[in-house]
Each structure stands twice: as C-alpha cells, then as structure tokens.
C-alpha cells in the first residue's frame, strides 16, 4: 500500500498550514484549456521512482500524443512534504500525485490543492463512474480537490495446499469461520512454538490495520453528530474482542516471538510467500509480488470475511488509493486539469497504469479490461471494488491522526493493557474528538 506514515503526514499538515494560511478554497477559479497551437510545459510530481515512474511515463506519453502542444515533465521521488514546500515557496508543480489519502482533508480545507468542482461541472464529468468510497477519499466537506488515480483494494489470500491438507474447501466468509479455519491450519512445533500460523491476528502486522478491518466489521467511524463512534458502535468492541480472543489462542508471547522472526512486508521473505502463514489480509498488489518472488505458490484470493452479524457486507472490503490534483499557485492549471481528467476518466491510461503497477483501475468502466479480468487472483479485487459495500475511512482535517490513536489503543488492548474495553473505547473517542477540534 502506497501510504506515508502518520508522523510524516503530520509534518505535511504543518507545512501546508504555513504554506497556505487562510486560503479561500476554490478561489483560483477555472482556468481555460490551452489552444491547440499554444505550447505548454506541464510539471508533474509524484513519489513514483524507478520502474514505476517509467510506467507513469508511458501514460503521460499517451496524453502528449493526444495533446502534442503540451509537453509533460515527469518528476519522481517527490512526496507530499516536497509538494507542500514548493507551494510555500511559490513554485509548485502543475499537477501533484499523492499516495496518502489521509492528507485529503488538509489538502482541501487549506486550499493547498485547488477545488476541481468548477472544472467537473464545466466538462460535465459524470462522477458516478467512481465508486462511492473513492469519491469519499478525494473530497472533504464539499470540496473536491482531487481525483482518484488507481486504487488499492484489500481481500483474503489463502494457501490452497494448506487448505486441502486441513480438509477445508473454499475460503471462510465470517470472522468466526476465519477463527475456526485458523485453528485447523495452525501447526505448532514440538516445543509449543508456532511453526505455521493459520492467521496472524496482531494489529499492525502487515496489512492488519484498524481501518481495513473496520470495513469488514461494518464499524462506523462517526455518528450522526459527526463525533467519533468508537465508544457508541458495538462493532468496535466486537472487533477488538475477536482480535484478543485470537491472540489468546496462540498466546501473546508465542505470537510475538513468531512474528518477530518473519520477513518484512515488502521483502522476498514475506511470510505468506514462504508458507509460514496460511491466510492473510492484503491488497491486490501482492499478486505481483507473488508472481515475481514465489511463482510456484498455490494460493487463491477471496473477499475478506465479515462480522457474523453483518453477512450482507460479504463481497465488499476496504479501499484506498493514489490521488491526483492541482496545487495552489500552479502556473498551468488549465492544461493541468486536462491531464488530470485524462488520467482519471479515460479507461485507456487507467488500464495501462493498472497493468504496469498492478493496482485496480479507479473507474467502474475501466474494470472491464479483459486482461485484468482474465487473472483469477486479480479479478477478486476488481469484484470487491465494484461491490456496493466497498468502504474507506473518512477524511479528517488533521490527516490520519485518528487512525493512529485508534490503532494505538487497539494494540494496547490486544496486549492486555486495557482492563475495561468499553470505557477505553469511549475515552479514545473523546481524545479523537478533542484532537479533531485542534486540527480543524
């Protein structure tokens, strides 16, 4: 998942605050597209590098072929921090690509990224081409300052050979089934230590983040009053009790020792690829890692199981993704919008990027690509993305601070450091609301 950490996000927010001050969102208006004979040089900044920057370049070449008067300068290894500094210095890129949807609240509310609504209205773009979840993470409080550019979608990976050996036919569909399957799939060493884990339930391990699990539990982040729902929605308590029960099955110390000896998430020693884990949650991009690093692995993908009391959610899941927008002060905003529109609404570049980066194309029409549909492992994630139960976490003016607060609490509870879960969730919700007031 291409996301920056919360600490980095907070640094970006501080930079944006100093860069933009009290900017009136959307004050830049709508810039006209350049005429066909007007020569324009566009600068595009992203965090892509190496091979992936080359994949983006091919898509940009396609844009240049359609607009030969517009030359695109593709600059990689440029993160949100560098874009914020460029805005502050008065020399921003014309188009910015970010891997962190958690910053969207600050991008939009500060005016650091321009409001695109007037462009969308002028060009009569149909935003129904985008799933509701992707529309959610590209706008904030009525300001649409970004468009989605590819998506990450999370589901279940499971080892088919291990399933067959354990007499299991097909993936689990509920959290109770996941727990029972994991017990059957787990193998212990003679000394009682874990040799193979059916599923690692540790919060923070690999893709086990609270926002990803919450989507499959139907846990709500906010109530109708806009305040944190952690203490009010019983799904949060059920989710964390489930994770704690899972941990107790293995033994906290045994599980910690086991995970400490596993490979890093983005290394060739990844535990699922090495046969040390039978099931896991991960994104569609893992299919590319497996193809390159463990091509003989017998595995399958499926939607991640859902809460026992929320069976209607099965088939959906969590999504986040890459976003693209026009920074405040961009010198060629009109041409920049033409590029943004091309990359995010034309199926051809979206599918080309999806092929090269192994991410899900972020519009519903682009999902119909025969090549992508033909890969059974990858198709699972296309189906999850198209499901009406696709979910994401809400944008916040202080970035992903509430995610870190929630995850820190979840880790503390799972480790046995919280005696009263209900009271702890209520206290955490109060802290999230207080932090949101400071960040708004």
Give an account of the 3D structure.
The chain is an alpha/beta fold. It has two domains: 215 residues, Periplasmic binding protein-like II (D-Maltodextrin-Binding Protein, domain 2, 3-Layer(aba) Sandwich); 160 residues, Periplasmic binding protein-like II (D-Maltodextrin-Binding Protein, domain 2, 3-Layer(aba) Sandwich), CATH 3.40.190.10. Helix content is 43%, strand content 12%. It is built from 18 helices and nine strands. Strands 1, 2, 3, 4, 5, 6, 7, 8 and 9 form a nine-stranded mixed sheet that branches. Strand 5 and strand 6 form a beta hairpin. The longest helix has 19 residues. The protein is globular and about 75 Å long. The two termini are 27 Å apart. The N terminus is likely disordered.
Key traits:
9 strands, nine-stranded mixed sheet, 2 domains, disordered N terminus, 440 residues, single chain, alpha/beta, 12% strand, D-Maltodextrin-Binding Protein, domain 2
User: What share of residues are in beta strands?
Assistant: 5-15%
Order of helices and strands: HEHEHEHHHEHHEEHHHEHEEHHHHHH
Note the main sheet. Answer: 9 strands, mixed
The second-level CATH architecture of the largest domain is 3-Layer(aba) Sandwich
CATH superfamily of the largest domain: Periplasmic binding protein-like II
Instruction: Provide a count of the helices.
Output: 18
**CATH top level label of the largest domain:** Alpha Beta
The CATH topology of the largest domain is given as D-Maltodextrin-Binding Protein, domain 2
- SS-derived structural category: alpha/beta
Helical percentage: 40-55%
Distance between the termini: 27 Å
User: Averaged pLDDT, please?
Assistant: 93
Low-pLDDT segments, ≥5 res: 1-8, 21-28
